[in-house]
Automatic annotation (TrEMBL):
A Pfam family assignment: Beta-lactamase
Keyword Hydrolase applies: yes
Keyword Membrane among UniProt keywords: no
Every Beta-lactamase-related domain range: 30-336
Gene3D superfamilies in UniProt: DD-peptidase/beta-lactamase superfamily (3.40.710.10)
Protein name as catalogued: Serine hydrolase
């Protein structure tokens, strides 16, 4: 009987290893095929399932560099920063600093004075689920002024003026993607903790997880990729400023997989906070949102996803808590269609197989 059990255990280990190898090859094949069709777009992908990590990458750091992109190459994660900010908001809830249904009136910095119709109206969860109704920064005008660093002229005064001059929330309770919402969330964090957003994200996410290649103010490193606009022109990384909580963190596939690992491990503070963000705070016919994440549900799966686009890079993160997997895709060009197609192809042709095959082991 003991011999049979040992044989069965060995068979299961061999089967699992063979399946993992096949799984890795499938993802690599998809990434390689897409790179061959788009040789000017560098790609870095990280995947985790049941604590096992896998990485693949194609392309060079720049057109002038012979250094290959790998799991440690630095990218702009752009609006994926928002899931880090929403996790910090949820950690503040766990720390009993705030509640998700608190009105923002009492937790915004002193310079903000809401007009009468807006008082005791907007909740923290409204900001984090893009339904506050507040006016947003006009990116079109900012890009015209400075196409390389459009947010460089945005200051706290810019934000205070936008909020204080708002007399009516025309679309309160309806989804409208908002940069100002997450910028205000960053300022709320600063107010309740008495520290800068940079200090907070470092103390609560970057340092505890040892995400040594996740950078904020200083990102002048040798392994940095070069961003490109949709036409292929070189695009600078955004410099750090007041809008940082909405999209200015830089990272790589290795560190984002580390984050996903912590997020999927229910014993960590990151995971406990993430579970708060995964609750449905906005629901419409074709959209469900948590705090900072899109929620997609079918008969078998609930998927949490967030995409990001800077002026020169595109990214997407996705995970399934029940199936215990997560994926990060980073591109060195602003190409939202390509990054979404990559995720769709990997999900449809690999992850569904992963779930069915794993069930048969």
């Amino acid at each position: 009987m003991k011999t049979s059990l040992k044989f069965l255990a060995a068979l299961l280990i061999t089967s699992t290893f063979s399946f993992a190898q096949d799984f890795n090859r499938k993802i690599d094949s998809i990434i390689k095929d897409n790179y061959q069709k788009n040789p000017n777009v560098g790609i870095s992908v990280g995947f985790i399932q049941n604590d096992k990590e896998y990485f693949t990458a194609y392309g060079n750091l720049s057109k002038d560099s012979q250094i290959k992109i790998d799991k440690n190459s630095l990218f702009e994660i752009a609006s994926i920063t928002k899931i880090l900010t929403s996790n910090l908001i949820a950690q503040a809830v766990l720390d009993k600093k705030i509640k998700t249904d608190d009105y923002i009136d009492s937790v915004l910095p002193k310079g903000y004075v809401l007009q009468e119709k807006l008082k005791n109206k907007i909740k923290i969860s409204d900001l984090a689920s893009h339904q506050s109704g507040l006016p947003d920064i006009d990116f079109g005008k900012l890009i015209e002024l400075n196409p390389q660093q459009p947010v460089s002229t945005v200051t706290e005064k810019t934000l205070i003026d936008l909020v204080n001059n708002c007399s009516e929330l025309k679309d309160y309770g309806k989804y409208r993607y908002s940069t100002i919402g997450y910028t205000l969330l960053g300022q709320i964090l600063e107010n309740v903790y008495g520290k800068s957003y940079n200090e907070i994200i470092r103390n609560k996410i970057i340092k505890p997880l040892k995400m040594t290649n996740t950078l904020t103010k200083d990102f002048n490193v040798k392994n940095r990729t070069v961003g490109h606009n949709p036409e292929g022109g070189v695009q600078e990384f955004f410099n750090w400023n007041v809008t940082a909580p909405a999209g200015l963190v830089k990272s790589n596939a290795a560190d984002m997989v580390t984050y996903l690992k912590a997020l999927l491990n229910q014993e960590t503070e990151i995971s406990k906070a993430a579970i708060i963000t995964e609750k449905i705070f906005y629901k419409a016919e074709n959209r469900e949102l948590g705090l900072g994440v899109n929620i997609m549900t079918d008969d078998k799966n609930t998927i949490y996803q967030k995409s990001g686009d800077s002026m020169g890079q595109s990214s997407i993160i996705c995970y399934n808590r029940v199936k215990n997997w997560g994926i990060i895709i980073l591109l060195d060009q602003r190409n939202s269609k390509m990054r979404q197609n990559l995720l769709n192809e990997i999900y449809d042709t690999v992850l569904t197989d992963t779930q069915s095959n794993k069930a048969n082991l």
